[in-house]
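Progress against Task 2.4 (sequence-to-structure conversion) is shown through the following example record, which the project officer requested during the mid-term review.
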Amino acid sequence: MVPRIGELLVRRGVATAAQVEAALHDPRDRPLPLASRLLEAGVDEGALAAALAERFGMPGVDLSRTTIDLDALEAVPRTVAEQDLILPLSLEGGRIHLAMARPLDDRVVAELRFVTGREVSVYAAIRSALDRAIEGAYEARARGERSWRGANAGPLPELGAAFPDGEAADEPLDVVEVLEADLLPDEPDAGVRIEVGAPEPLPPRADARPLALVVDDEPEIRQLVQRTLESRGWAVELAGDGEEALARADALLPDVVLLDAMLPRLHGFEACRRLRSSPRTRNVPVVMMTAIYRGWRFAEDARENYGAVDYVEKPFRLDDLARRVAAAREASASRPLAPAPEADARVARGRALLDEGRAVEAAALLADAAHADPLGAEAHLQLGRALAATGDAFGAMTALERAVELRPNLPGLRALARLYEEKGFRRNAAGTLERAVAAASEAQERAALREDLLRLLA
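Structure tokens generated for the chain above:
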């Protein structure tokens, strides 16, 4: 059972029971969390941040000891930072390192990932300290300064003065060793080494009409779109969530998938990414529908980062929707089949360079391959290996996250979980281990993964 923050602070010796009691019953009308009240009462911010790290299963950040490169603030407008109580600390490793007063708010993280196209690492922050840091950092940026430093920050930039296990680390983490244990070149795992070609074609469908798979969690919309498309000569199959969409698309290989963005079980954008990265369905065009993510920036991100061929905002005109579905099919039919990313020569060459110990060259080549084919799971997996070998821990984390989103496999999930744990993201590590258990085919592997999961949750 996760302890309450007050109990945790007393147990760790951060505050006395009397201090906690006094803060909880402060007569002043201040809607501040307990940690913020204790900070104002003189308790050390670093000790409070370490307690938050244990409480939330992720690194805590002592903002008084943090130096922020203000270029990172471009990722989040000030109004959003103040509203959601978030502050970018760094863009190290191609990801956003984000201080949050409400670190379990997955909505904020999901929206930031989508808007920026970057992965996000969350650091728990004291609310009152974060308020001051947001004001100070954005005002410093407005004055044209390059960095903002907390009151106790040292002379050199520090990434968040983070406390992965409640204490500052004595030694640097050996990320390369952790990753290589699971991603050795000669490991007999099909997820790493086997190249997957194009799928064998299905036998011709008995129904000669083009087939559309319509995915929406609202039955009324599914039925309305179904009637519209059927009246224009389409055969239509239906799905109500993201997981069902993947299963039905794999089984049916439709001519077009019409996919809502907000879906239960698996978000529509993630479903789109997986459809477009699978060797079986990567040539099936996906038209996204959304009532939430509006505007050209979202449309461009849906195309560039998730592989959608079109992006339709709700409410829509049914005749316009039918026209765009037909256009997506016609455009797809006129394009040559996309090659399987695992067969890409750059991925094969990068993997060979990595096996030869030439990690820097491999990383550069594999980064080009991943950029050229952003939906290629193998390119991102091998890039993660290469970046780990060069010592770029956060870059490796970003690449592995993308790889397991595109094609979950045991080596990638296991390596990512260990990397999360080493960097202090225990909550992320536990979630990734749960996925690894589901991906494991052998009972012995599942048992070992469950032991690791129980250890993390203890």
